Amino acid sequence: MSASSAPPVTDGRGGSNVVEQTPVPGFDLFRLKMRKEDCSTASIAAFENNYKSLVNGETGMIPEDAITPASGLPTYESTRGAAARLPGKGIAELLSQTAVVKLNGGLGTSMGLEKAKSLLPVRGNDTTFLDLIGRQVEHMRKQHGAPNLKFLLMNSFSTSDDTKEFFGGRFPQLQWTELMQNMSPKIDKATKTPAVFEENPKLEWCPPGHGDIYPALLGTGTLDRLLEDGVKYLFVSNSDNLGATLDLDLLAYFANESGAPFLMEVCERTESDKKGGHLAVSNATNGLILRESAQCPKEDEGSFQDVTKHRFFNTNNLWVNLVHLKATMSKHGGLLPLPTIFNEKTVDPRNKKTPKVYQLETAMGSAIACFDKAGAVCVPRTRFAPVKTCADLLVLRSDAYTTLPDSRVQLTPCVAKSPVVKLDDDHYKLVDKLDALVEAAPSLSACTKLTVQGPVRFVAGTTLKGSCRIVNHGADAVTLPPKTYVDCDIDLTASATATADNDAAVPSKARATGCFGCLFR
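== UTP--glucose-1-phosphate uridylyltransferase ==
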């Protein structure tokens, strides 16, 4: 189970850039285990730093009196025109100094997937996340005369083979580089030693979170190779966030105007975001930090969830200056001292009777605290459109979104805000169940809210406008008759044949104003 495709540790995998840390008592067994599996020196150093946090009893708590709300951030609108203001050869030269990295290690198990989540069809003609990403890279290279724009995918051992097969079949000419995510040992909770599970030794290991991108870049030699190729700027985002495209004005702003070594795209928090993490300013350093819910003391939860006080959350769209990244990692002995996330699980996650373990992770956005003069820019929600649930997927497959000629996916012009969709988890949580019940996505371009309870089948020719609620309390799926529904509350329970007529739809006083250009485009 190699941690990457780079040479073994005895040949200096990341070793020249990593300074030995003060030995942590009890870590020798982990170091030995990781070296046997050919883990890079950089990944071992990062895991040792996390292990030290565990044995030292660090909680990572950030109390309210230790921070100040972030404010006065530059806006997305203020970056417009930055590409046009570039000196010299302009955008082509800047793109030759840029690399795009997509995090592609997830399987989407919460949606019932067994392959890379990025291989899930999200638009018509079985177009997947990776189709759209690959076409975007090809378009950017061709449109701007920048064949040297680097494209990397950070894969895990679970997604590597499927991803290579996909690009070999659909994009055989596309140049890209695989950055392999490392693996970390699970820790026996009782003994703080490496977990042992002889029935399935693979379960003794776990992914270290997307904060692993930094030791992966260093340990595989990718960071040095990029710098040698003249690459200075990295744009990193999740592969399931189709809003996270390589925005040329943001790139030019980051590289030429911001003066920041690290730039985070943030969005304004709403009530639906109040339990998620937020951006803040550390009173100790006067620099930006992230505070996650697990880092908030119970007595400060009120302030944590006050979206008018702590206004911004991390989109996980990050811009990194590679020169500063290498210097900062060198300053800290070959690693970034990221806060550790402690996950308590069982060694076999499917068997709660197996021994309890710790899985240690880090988040890449928390690196904002490691860079002097790191910055953030407030972007619109259109740059944060991840697909985490089947409800998200249904909206993306509908006419609420459109695919542009350059393969970017955006809200259809007449749609001011993505509709809020709530689907019954008992019937729509998994992709195969969604596909079985939704033969064709309904038109949602004029829909503001859709709630579905029970097994309801959607077929072609169905249009939903305004706020719609559709219920079937029966056990068998019932087809919603294909027609236009406006601000309706429909109960299909009594009709096995679903012969709904005008009496089945109860319109409210407010009616949607349809956009015919979108409904019949």
